Amino acid sequence: MIGTAWRVVGVGFSLLVVLVAALLSGVDPQQTGYVGSDVGDLVVGFGLRTDDLTVFMLAVVGVIAACVQVYSISYLHERVASYTALVTLFTAAMVTVVVADSLFLLLIGWEVMGACSYLLIGHYWERRDARSGAVKAFLMTRLGDVGFLFGIFVLAMDAGTARISELRPDQLSSGALTAGTLLLLVGVVGKSAQVPLQTWLPDAMPGPSPVSALIHAATMVAAGVFVIARLYDVFAAADVTLTVLAVVAVVTMLFAAACAMAAVEVKRVLAWSTVSQLAIMFAGLSLGTADGRHAALFHLLTHAAFKGLLFLCAGVLLHQVGSAAFVVLRRYTRKGALRKQMPVTFATMTVGLAALAGVPGFAGFFSKDSVVEAAWHHASDGSTIGWIVLVSVCLTAAMTAFYCVRLWLWVFYRTPALAGALGAFEDDDPMADVEEPNTAKLREPSWVMLGPLVLLAIGAVVLGYTDGVHLNWVIALVTTLLAVLGALPAYSLWQRGADPRPVVLEREFGVDPAYQRLFVVPVGWFAKLAVDGDRDVIGGYVRATGRAGLLASAGFRKLQTGNVQTYLTAAVVGVVALAVLAGVIGS
Q: What is the pLDDT of residues 486-539, one digit of tens each?
């Protein structure tokens, strides 16, 4: 009964966010301050802001959160109250970030999201990988948030205000502008899992699939894109920051796409895909143009639909099959069970992967092309950054098509060269000796779970047309050709039963082991040194002081004999000694 009540509250709050977005649509932009105080020359206030970007993000957050809450009714049956409360708080924190007109109010929502993500990723706390993934996410995002906090102070102190609507580049000195935006970028990189703080997001996959959908589609990682879009006038005036952002985005999109090409778990493929797609949004923002900002936000919108859909589909596979690893799913695919007995899941996941791969007609095709077109216009003006972004996004588009087709074929279709396909995973299969599964029990979940899938699948198609059917046919032809060039190798390898996983890709370029050696091990040494120093040095002095007091008290106790003659003799000796000493000093 309590769980049902919490679920009603969660769904109701998410729908309320959607309603607020609908009511605010078309309203004149406003800024409303509620609490404010002067701290020296700085005005600290907590204000709210209403504009097109607010309405846009509220709609995205509300719809995705509502789908996740409804889906969770059938998906999750343990610790329901705490889960629903945390998801609702998580959504409220993102709403706070969206409506904030104060850097400090934005920071509050930003930090609450981080705390909620830690608790939600570790929802299955009895699992070691869930606990370690939650801790890793918390520590790496907190590392970035240190820079974010200092960036807020630098900008607010130099401008004399923390109100976002009053923060203008001409109010800031060049040094404060560059330093403040770079520090904010550190927090954005951590929260959105960009290089070099990218490794926490794939390791957060042990959390519930609805949580993954919410984090990847509408909150947390999307917050970084939103913050730069909100402060875009300030960031666009900082050339050094935009250059750093472009470099980070280019490296991240290619790195993450390469990792997704070799991952063997559905959710891990999707996680690396999120990192790569976010980098495409950041690449659009790094152009510093209105077209780049518009393209990035358009891709954020379509990405929310198809990535939320894909994670919820992965949740269905976990719910019905028990694992979203290729190696286990292949056992069902041998009999064609997944595609035949779960047609709605198959159809909706196909739509999501088509949108992600940029298949013409789907939402991802239009939004990705808008980023390419913005980069092309910027490159045509002689911008080196524009050319780098253009080439990188095009390469990423081909790599995205590769891992989307690879995932789709390996999960849902019987491999022609079956022996070779199974052999590709033979060494890594922890269930190699497990008997064939009983596919008779395999079926679609209830419509409580399927309903959100169908809704998001519709969004993954129609959202591409919300910006108007504006196509640059040359760019559309090029990106389509790149998608085909990426898909063909995946199809060829699947048909031959081969799944190449080069060691460097399978190990994700060895970044985690490198971080382990460079940071975790030294920190462990310093921690041990601190513990040993506290125990053996500081603790030694404390213990020695205590023992000295005990020894002194024991010695003084032995002097208390109870013999009056001894006491008088000691007194006389003392008086004589003092008299002699006084005489010596006086002479």
A: 999 999 988 887 776 665 576 777 888 888 888 888 888 888 888 888 887 888
Which H/E stretch holds residue 576? helix 564-586
What percent of the chain has pLDDT above 70?
87
Q: Are 111 and 41 in contact (CB under 8 A)?
A: no
Q: pLDDT tens digits, residue range 478-487?
A: 999 999 999 9
CB atoms within 10 A of CB 353: 28
Residue type for position 456: L
Q: How far apart are the C-alpha atoms of 228 and 188, rounded to whole Å?
A: 8
Query: Is 312 within 8 Å of 453 (Cβ atoms)?
Result: yes
Cis-peptide into 196, omega within 30 deg = yes
Compute the distance between CA of residue 168 and CA of residue 156 in angstroms, rounded to an integer. Answer: 11
The answer to whether 183 and 103 are in contact (CB under 8 A) is: no
Q: Supply the pLDDT for residue 53.
A: 94
Cα 328 to Cα 262, 299, 422, 586: the distances in Å are 16, 33, 10, 100
Q: Alpha helices, DSSP H only, in 435-562?
A: 447-462, 473-495, 503-506, 511-515, 521-532, 539-559
Helix axes 266-286 and 363-380, enclosed angle (nearest 10): 30
Which 3 state secondary structure label does DSSP give 38?
A: strand
CB 53 within 8 A of CB 428: no
Helix axes 239-262, 384-412, angle to 10 degrees: 20
What b/e readout covers 205-238, taking b as 16+ CB neighbours within 10 angstroms?
bbbbbbbbbbbbbbbbbbbbbbbbbbbbebbbbb
Count the Cβ atoms, other than its own, within 10 Å of residue 100.
24
Cα separation of 196 and 508, whole Å?
13
φ, ψ for residue 161 (rounded to 5)? -155, 150
Q: Following DSSP, what letter does each residue of 178-236 receive, concatenated?
A: HHHHHHHHHHHHHHTT-TTS-TTTGGGTTS-HHHHHHHHHTSTHHHHHHHHHHTHHHHH
Q: What CA–CA distance (Å, rounded) separates 279 from 275?
A: 6
Provide the residue count of the chain.
Answer: 587
Helix, strand or coil, per DSSP, at residue 30:
strand
**Residue 514, C-beta contacts closer than 8 angstroms, at least 6 positions apart:** none
- What's the rounded Cα separation, in Å, for the pair 283 and 47? 30
DSSP state of 28: P
At 433, is the pLDDT very low, low, confident or very high (cuts 50, 70, 90)? very low
Judged by DSSP in three states, 29 sits in coil
Q: Give me the DSSP letters along 277-316.
A: HHHHHHHHHHT-SHHHHHHHHHHHHHHHHHHHHHHHHHHH
DSSP assignments along 376-428, one per residue:
HHHHHTT-HHHHHHHHHHHHHHHHHHHHHHHHHHHHHS--SSHHHHHHTTGGG
